[in-house]
Amino acid sequence: MADLSIEMCGIKSPNPFWLGSGPPTNSGEQVMRAFDAGWGGAVWKTLGEPIVNVSSRLGAIDYAGARMMGLNNIELITDRPLETNLKEMYAVKKAYPHHALIASLMVETKEQWRDIIKRSEDAGADGLELNFGCPHGMCERGMGSAVGQEPRVLAEITSWVKEYAQVPVLVKLTPNVGDILVPGKAAVEGGADGLSLINTIKSIIGVNLDTLIPMPTVGSQSSQGGYCGPAVKPIALHMVGALARDPGVTIPISAIGGISDWRDAAEFLALGATSVQVCTAVMHEGYRIVEDMIEGLNYYLDAGGLASVTDLVGKALPGFTEWGELDLNYNVIAKIDSETCIGCQLCYVACLDGAHQCIHTDQGPCSAYHGEPDHGAHPRDVVQPPIWHQNGGGADTHVPFVDEQECIGCNLCKLVCPVPGCITMEEVPTSAGKESWNDRLAKGLA
Amino acid sequence: MSVEQPAWKALPDDRAEFQFADAKPAFSDAEAVIEANRCLYCYDAPCIKACPAGIDIPAFIKKIATGNIRGSAKTIFKSNMLGVSTARVCPVDVLCVGACVLNDLNEQPIRIGRLQRYATDETLEAESRADWDLFTPKAAIGKRVALVGAGPAALACAAHLVLEGVTAVIYEKDDRPGGLNLTGVAPYKLQSEAALAEAKWLLRNGVQLKTGVQVGRDIELDQLIKQYDAVFIGVGLGADKALGIPGEDGPGVWGGSGLIRKIKNDPAFELPDDVQAIVVIGGGNTAIDIARELAMLGVPDVKMLYRRTVGEMPGYGHELQGARKYGVRLLERLTPTAVIRDGGRVTAFRATSTASGVATDYPCDWVVVAIGQEKHAVHLADGIEVDEKGRMVVDPQTRRTGHSKVYAGGDCINGGQEVVNAATDGREAAFAMLRSWDIAPELA
Ligand SMILES: Cc1cc2nc3c(=O)[nH]c(=O)nc-3n(C[C@H](O)[C@H](O)[C@H](O)COP(=O)(O)OP(=O)(O)OC[C@H]3O[C@@H](n4cnc5c(N)ncnc54)[C@H](O)[C@@H]3O)c2cc1C
Ligand SMILES: Cc1cc2nc3c(=O)[nH]c(=O)nc-3n(C[C@H](O)[C@H](O)[C@H](O)COP(=O)(O)O)c2cc1C
Ligand code: SF4
Ligand code: SF4
Ligand code: SF4
Hints:
The structure holds two protein chains of two kinds. By secondary structure, chain A is α/β, with parallel strands linked by helices. Chain A folds into two domains: about 5-320, Aldolase class I (TIM Barrel), CATH 3.20.20.70; about 325-445, Alpha-Beta Plaits (2-Layer Sandwich). Chain A is built from 14 helices and 21 strands. Chain A has helices at about 30-35, 80-95, 110-120, 145-150, 150-165, 180-190, 235-245, 260-270, 280-285, 290-305, 345-355, 365-370, 410-415, 435-445; strands at about 5-10, 10-15, 15-20, 40-45, 45-50, 60-65, 65-75, 100-105, 125-130, 170, 195, 200-205, 205-210, 215, 225-230, 255, 275-280, 330-335, 360, 400, 425. Chain A is globular. Chain B has helices at about 30-40, 45-50, 55-65, 70-80, 85-90, 95-100, 110-125, 150-165, 180-185, 190-205, 220-225, 255-265, 285-295, 315-325, 410-415, 420-435, and strands at about 145-150, 165-170, 210, 230-235, 235-240, 255, 275-280, 300-305, 330, 335-340, 345-355, 360-365, 365-370, 375, 405-410. By secondary structure, chain B is α/β, with parallel strands linked by helices. The radius of gyration of chain B is 22 Å and the shape is globular. In chain B, the strands form four sheets. In chain B, strands 3-2-1-4-15 form a five-stranded parallel sheet, covered by helices on one side. Chain B has a five-stranded parallel sheet with strand order 6-13-7-8-9. Chain B folds into three domains: about 25-130, Fumarate Reductase Iron-sulfur Protein, Chain B, domain 2 (Orthogonal Bundle); about 145-235 and about 375-435, FAD/NAD(P)-binding domain, CATH 3.50.50.60; about 240-370, FAD/NAD(P)-binding domain (3-Layer(bba) Sandwich). Chain B has 16 helices and 15 strands. Chain B starts with about 30 loop residues before the first helix and ends in an 8-residue tail after the last helix. Chains A and B meet through helix 10 of A and helix 1, helix 3 and helix 4 of B. The complex binds flavin-adenine dinucleotide, flavin mononucleotide (FMN) and iron/sulfur cluster (3 copies). Flavin-adenine dinucleotide binds near residues 186 and 286 of chain B. One iron/sulfur cluster binds near residues 41 and 47 of chain B.
């Protein structure tokens, strides 16, 4: 068994799995049940000045029958009294001294920050997370993403907090910016000890076509909300990776966004995160999902010969580079395994209509259908209609054929193929050495 | 770890069971993931409640979906050490699958048995790999337990005991371990190789197996009670019951479980070409199984004769349906009356209608009597009792008999249920023994 314990900017946790600030960390009773289930830490639902929440407040999109691929919410920070939250935090920390308990905060004035920091620390918080990310409701009041989108303000508020705080300070970033490095570096400049990202993405989840009111509906209206859940994971992965590899960002990262299982978590760790936070997946299936997260990550580390979870951190960063550095002489082509192919021809139509017309439903080179192989460079006025469809029979005669001369190795066919492992992308050996766009520019060849 | 594996005689080749294909073939990786993702991951799931072993079904399925197959197998074995065979032989339609909430959504329920097979088969394949050890046995604690019989009940019990550092010694009268998994369960569900591979896996942490030793004949139960800290009895059931009607003794009349054993394990067994019609007596699952097996082996006319009506049959409806697909016919309300012979050879079976009282001769070449099995009588010692049906009496929680050192489980206490019940009894008896020594079992 690998060692899953972590220390993130001084905050110790038995494992890297934390609950993100949100409904799952609304109350002490919930957080204690979560710790019992195995969660290593929790970022409490954001504390601040009293607000009122609306009803309803969540919307979701399903995909191909699967529920909640993306979730959107118009919930604000906690609507429970500050006193109640702090009392419960104190009780939780007392009962679970070795778990990471982090207070998420969002207030306006310097005095308010000083006051709430002191009270959070008195309640036993191991760290503070500054919520500069909420994209609805709070930003209109000059807080949340209004701060996160304004690097100067972000750095200044961070430095106020650092002036008062005794415990480590994480800055939670909003993804609603053009370049995540800008707020990330502003947080570093303000003295933050760590970064948390992403918060939710500004969105409208849908429009009710019967009432013509956007969702989630409050009476006869709606408002833009924050998007999260599995659908946002790729966006979060990029932002985490971009910060982690930047030499200007020297502080650890707590990754958030669409993490639902141990694989998602491992990917974020490999792209440089030290801990991960989960909100939507717990809202969907409960605290119990952490059992598989812990066990699955453990077995994964074991299988890879890694003794500690910290050994995984950043392992994928060397492979993450700028487009200009990629090797232009590297080529792959698609290969179809006729043994496992079920003859659905989704690869065929995808390549024909959505890629480069290199897959055919009959054996034979491209020239039979659209002239000599030319990677699409010449006019295609002689393309044959796909009459060969008619000679299809069972799956065996429906196995499509990849014209290897024409295939440009885009991956599309492999991505649409419903049979795992049926289409593989195989490297074409070449004697040409690596040459990137930047190499070409340097040689004046581009 | 290098614990010597117990050895046993290899099974002979050329067995009739090879003629049976898997009724529920293994899932491919892709099929398993698609099926696992259909599971709703219910909270307080009804499928768990319907599983006699109480396996955390949504958790093991979720782990297949996330690619944590090793963890999935661990979740299964933790509750049911016989996960490999039960995945294939459990009557899932009346257990977990029958309880799946998707039945209420007009969707096909999750094929839990086949997912369980996917996760547990992987474990047997990975058995030799050091990185796949699911449970680590603890250091010896100086306790010794004797187990009588190497069927599912005792194998499960021993597997749990050795994990807690207990020395477990199994006494088995046959040449090989496995009990009815090896000799009784239908070959289109579980073949002998898989049953033996599972037994080998269950014994891997140092369980000692003594084959060819019949307790009550070669060694007395009293002796075991004296020599060991506790004894577990998992002897199953005895020989097939006879009808006690004229003509029954002689060639051409078989006991149900005895004939199945021949089909599964005996290379000398061959169905003679001139056996074209067979009458099977009984309405339980053994009767249905043997009828289906004979039909699948090519006997054109297989009739089941049952004394009451189909609704009263103890055999499962889905099993009867399965047998009917191969041409088995069921005749109801018939009381066995006589086996009719001509010069020793069976020519017909005479049965009397319970409705009309009329006796009819059903022409046949063989008769198979599958009306249940005798109970074993070897286990009577101080304080150990049997009920009026011959079942050993145990405490329902601990599976302890009236004797403070003797526990029992499986068919010998329930009169003949399923493999999963035997495995659960074995587990609970192991836990109870450990608790009696003030040890809290880790997997409890
Ligand atoms: C034909 C048939 C089909 C079945 N099909 C299914 C099915 O599809 N699914 C399912 O779940 N269940 C099925 N069952 C039931 C299942 O096989 C049993 O419930 C299960 O095997 C009981 O396990 P056990 O350990 O109690 O006994 P057994 O499996 O009977 O094992 C008892 C062992 O004890 C040994 N033994 C007996 N006496 C002594 C002695 N004195 N000394 C030493 N050793 C002794 C025996 O040789 C045997 O190896 C079937 C049963 C039969 C008969
Ligand atoms: C209903 C809801 C309420 C949330 N409330 C807060 C909050 O109070 N403070 C905060 O920092 N983030 C809040 N979040 C954002 C989450 O902490 C998290 O950053 C985001 O949901 C992305 O992670 P996920 O994909 O795991 O949900 C909320 C999210 C949801 C869905
Ligand atoms: S999930 Fe709970 S709080 Fe939300 S609408 Fe349903 S019942 Fe109400
Ligand atoms: S998409 Fe896959 S399965 Fe379908 S025809 Fe193409 S190779 Fe065969
Ligand atoms: S009842 Fe069905 S859907 Fe629900 S957890 Fe069990 S197998 Fe999955």
